[in-house]
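Subject: design request, 81 residues
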């Protein structure tokens, strides 16, 4: 099962430059055209499932507007017989 991730974009800093959208290896990011921030930009968002939490979007964001969260998957321990 591939890792699962999610992002939180801070509307105060996101300027809708789309650098994160272009850099996303899973191609799951886009601009939220249904919203406009207080500064007048369409913020970045996840537009479909498939985020792995790789963090590339946060690294390329010039405004440090993206926080990435990744699900921690712990291996199952076999029960003693």
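Subject: RE: design request

Done. Sequence follows.
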């Amino acid at each position: 099962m591939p890792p699962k991730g999610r992002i939180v974009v801070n509307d105060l800093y996101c300027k809708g430059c789309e650098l994160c959208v272009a850099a996303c290896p899973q191609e799951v990011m886009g601009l939220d055209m249904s919203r406009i921030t207080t500064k007048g930009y369409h913020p970045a968002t996840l537009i479909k499932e498939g985020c792995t939490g790789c963090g590339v979007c946060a690294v390329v964001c010039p405004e440090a507007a993206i926080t990435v969260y990744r699900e921690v998957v712990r291996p199952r321990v076999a029960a003693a017989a």
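Helices lie at 19-23, 56-60.
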